[in-house]
Amino acid sequence: MTKADLVSKMAEKASLTKADSEKALNAFLDSVQDTLVKEGKLTLTGFGTFAVEERKSRNGRNPRTGEEIKIPACKVVKFRPGKILKDAVK
């Protein structure tokens, strides 16, 4: 599903125009991003939890040359689904 498909589905389910549903989706995505940057964690009860976690530096290999390289530490966003979402997907 693409963002355009999601906007169309949101517009249909919420009886909104596509423009309004796209604004709502963009506002939601911006809010999630701002919360993760400031607080590092966002919990949507029943849906799941987004959390920023630190990934340690590690050694890896260049797939083309086989040469060993150092992969630096970085922050990544992880998602853990909630019970309601897990049960719906089963």
TrEMBL record:
Belongs to the bacterial histone-like protein family. One of its GO terms (molecular function) is DNA binding. Keywords: DNA condensation, DNA-binding. It comes from Desulfonatronospira thiodismutans ASO3-1. InterPro entries: Hist_DNA-bd (IPR000119), Histone-like_DNA-bd_CS (IPR020816), IHF-like_DNA-bd_dom_sf (IPR010992). It comes from the Bacteria. The keyword Transport does not apply. GO terms for biological process: chromosome condensation. This is Histone family protein DNA-binding protein. One of its GO terms (cellular component) is cytosol.
